[in-house]
Amino acid sequence: MNVLLLVIIAVILFFAIKNSIPHFKGEGACCGGGDKEKLIKTKKLDNVIAVKTIHIEGMRCANCRIRVQNKLNQMDGVSAKVSLEKKTATVQLGKDISDDELIRVIESLGYKAEKQ
User: Fold this and answer.
1) Residue 58 near residue 112 (C-beta atoms within 8 A)
2) How far apart are alpha carbons 9 and 113 in whole angstroms?
3) What pLDDT does 54 receive?
4) Segment holding 83, helix H or strand E
5) Secondary structure of the chain as H, E, C letters
6) The model's pTM
7) Tell me, what's the pLDDT at 16?
8) CA–CA distance, 111 with 116 (Å, rounded to integer)
9) What are the tens digits of pLDDT across the range 88-101?
10) How far apart are the first and last CA of the chain?
């Protein structure tokens, strides 16, 4: 009976670890599905009047980065590039947008953000 229980636990642990490895590599379905090939929406501004850097806590994978970058780039007058490694968003502004507004957009996705 004890041997059977140990075998069951070992099988469960094996599959749990095997299925967790892609997540920790940033390849899993964290925060928005397993579609690693999601389109990253980029935008180029004709007239950049300011560049801001926002520090972001809570991004864990490429999908997190894509979500933040796409959400920022949906804003009028914003062109953003997000770095998962640096935990930052570099935001080019084509019009006057407050730090609070940028932070509010990022935090609406569930991350913690602050101006650097």
Assistant:
1) yes
2) 40
3) 97
4) strand 78-83
5) CHHHHHHHHHHHHHHHHHHHHHHHCCCCCCCCCCCCCCCCCCCCCCCCCEEEEEEEECCCCHHHHHHHHHHHHCCCCEEEEEECCCCEEEEEECCCCCHHHHHHHHHCCCCEEEEC
6) 0.69
7) 84
8) 15
9) 999 999 999 999 99
10) 58
